[in-house]
Amino acid sequence: MTESSVAIDHATSHPALQHHFENMEQQREAGTIGMWVFLVTEIMFFGGMFLAYTLYRSYYPAAFAAASNHLDITLGAINTAVLIVSSFTMALAVYGTQVGRTRMQNICLFLTLVLGLTFLGIKAVEYRSKYEDRLIPGRLIPGREFGPQVAEANDTDPHKLHLRDGASVRQVEMFYWIYFAMTGMHALHMVIGAGLLTVILILSLRGRFSPEYHSPVEISGLYWHFVDIVWIFLFPLLYLLGRHVH
Amino acid sequence: MEEFFIPKPTRVDYLKAEYGLKSWLLTRDHKRIALLYLYSITFFFLIGSVYAMLIRLELLTPQGDLMQSTTYNKTFTQHGIIMVFFFLIPSIPATLGNFLVPMMIGAKDLAFPRINLLSWYIYLVGGLVTIYALLAGGVDTGWTFYAPFSTTFSNSYVVATGLGIFINGFSSILTGLNFIVTIHTMRAPGMTWFRLPLFIWAHYATSLIMILGTPVIAITILLLAFERFAGIGIFDPAVGGDPVLFQHLFWFYSHPAVYIMVLPGMGVISELIANFSRKNIFGYGFVAFSSLAIAVFGFLVWGHHLFVAGQSIYAGMIFSFLSFAVAIPSAIKVFNWTATLYKASISYETPMLYALGFIGLFTIGGMTGLFLAALATDVHLSDTYFVVAHFHYIMVGGTLLAYLGGLHYWWPKISGRMYPEGWGRFSALVVFVGFNLTFLPQFVMGYMGMPRRYHMYPPEFQVLHVLSTAGASILGVGLLIPVIYLMWSMRYGRIAEANPWHLPGLEWRTQSPPPTENFDVTPVVTWEAYEFAPPEETEVVGTFRE
Amino acid sequence: MSEHIVPVKVYLTIFLALMVGTVVTVWAAFFDFPWRLNTIIALTIASVKATLVVLYFMHVRYSARLVWVIVASALFWMGILFALTLSDYFTREWLPL
Is B315 at the interface with chain C, CB within 8 A? Predict the structure, then answer.
């Protein structure tokens, strides 16, 4: 057997090279694969909730349609657009680091962060209106249990539930639980993403990233895009399913 | 005469590299983290064993005289939770895997050392939350947490325990993530996939399961917790939910989890069988791919836990067929290990005793699984002691034996000391006898109709229960002895040379214990896995004696 | 550096495609298509959007094969969860053998 010396001269290597990696390329590859493996766990995590949604939507189509129609489609659509723009700015930020255009990189990171916070703000507005209409399921809010007002035949009050085709309030509650579980979990991931972006932005402003070393920005981008993709599916499934039924 | 290059110690070993509590609690060295896990896992194993002893004591007599039924429910629940989540799932990967994966591929550490340390802290936090729940009053739902008892009717600490398990899941995920990335990106030059030790293949497959399965139980526990304290329900029929959905989501993870528990053990056994027979594993490629096959097929069979739960009979048939299929890769391994032994130069040190025990006991466990996979027999055997015996044969007769075998085998590498061989062999035999005496009667009583999770039973089962409890006491003694002599050996054991078993594996081509960065220089691998000279050309190594 | 730099024009095109997809999906939601076409259309548009994000914004189009395998595996596994669980629910009402 032979052993040969492949010693690394860490004195002349990039300051960001960690001691257990042979070179920056290996470190970058490891980081990228690591984030992708993590995203797999996120896909399976949300998958469980998508399964519950699929099952109960097939069981209670009328209730789900009625409940979905009660969501604010305008705010939902705006939020979708907000996230898509934020994905675009995130991609541009990564591009900026790749080509060394630091001003572009910093501005785009900042925009991504602002758009993410905007999304959360709009979400808060939506949640608030659900709170007011007593649509928060179960005893999640102690003292304010699920108890929306159900509209009569000709009542067009938008704050009341408009049921038809045998939909029951209990089944509508099921929809809202799934709605809050999924959008709530998504919002939590957005909050984490915003935190991540803040850190990346600060590091970027301090000049930590360059065309030779920017994998943290890329990896954060992967996370951000993933959270966008979850919303790309949530929006039609939660907001649009009953619009063609009046 | 075959000789292996044994390097002279040139650097301080990892145990002496730094002193002080901080150097351990803030370490990034995968070997130190492995030891941290070793101590904490042993701690949780002791707690789980106490619950096991309480169960066996209660079952000595047909009446429920040692404890009330709710207490008994808490005892077996907590035994299951501690043993499954805080012992079996992390055991081999977090101790032996953490220690050996970088060494076996020629790397200096895992890809993400700080995440590795974080995974240990997360494990501790999850364990402490669970212990809090146990001390505060315990949980009585069974480790399976079935709805609607767990969501609505149980008056125990379901949410707290669930939280502990939820937190612990992240430890599993981070470990698996680390292994996958490391194995893909940090193999030494020349270390191609098919030169990897089978231990690595097994841990790679295990990591795939950890990554794909654990998140599903995470969301299931969260949904369970919310259902319980907020009164909403996707599992509660009163609000239109389905309790069987809980079972689907729970077992989607928990069945692959049993493969998380046994696959690393199989990896250890491949190492032990090959190395203590001085022979390349028969059918290396088959064994390697069978690990992957088990990981994949393991995800397709969870419905066999729902045969009598109200699942559609058509789904039941699909799951039954797939459950038969999943036995095939496991059987392939058993055949290949056996073929390896044929005409080999076998030596019967402690690790080999455990490995041989594994082959027999795992086979029994696996075959009894097939009885359960058949729909008709499962109706008779479901929720009886037959099932209990089946999974203990695999988890104790399989995983625990592999863990002990691996611990002994690599002990000189980990600690730089040899364990006392006489005591090692003695306790291996005591464990084997005690184990079989404990669980063989359980097959019989299960078939005769003794239900699981009952603390009172008709008198005709008592003889079998007494045998089982006697066996458990012997098993307990057999397990306690290694704890004592391994700890003793760390201080007083004979100092081991770098390669005391004279083996070709990469981990043996550096000091025992290794220096912090594992190798003096990055190895360039030019040999195949398990490259032994033919038996005629090697000196037969008996016990390690000067 | 084996990194592939995607030009801004590509990002811009993908971005516009995503916005168009959003508009289309909202617009199509208000039409009453026969059978389950509403759902199919919505999910198809969402899948196309997601695919564009994965391939271009997340650079999978230009990444090593390993990344493709990882993405495909995740989708496949979610598929297993769905297919086998729903195989129970959708066959419960079937007539016994």
Answer: yes
